[in-house]
Amino acid sequence: MNFEQHYGDLISKIKLNGMTPDGNSMPINKCFLDKKFQKVVKKSNYQIDSYMNVIYEKKKDFKVGEVLEWELQGEKMPVFLIESKKLFVKGKHFWVYAVGIIE
What we know:
103 residues; 7-stranded antiparallel sheet; 1 helix; mainly beta
């Protein structure tokens, strides 16, 4: 599993609730989620087998537990917001949203 994989040049074609992110990881199996977040996924009652990290430079008005719409080149799918976190990386602040892909 390569956690460094991301969508690269396709980032500009991705939208989360209509907003293009600054970064987006490839889907990761939920077994790599911390137990705390696996419990959040289990309580959601959604069938979620993988998740992605969606990254923005500015905070978005997303609420943990809500279902959002993730889109890539016109293909849409519902995702469940597992967690949001502010990170400081190489002198810049970023907001990272962990979203579970609803099957």
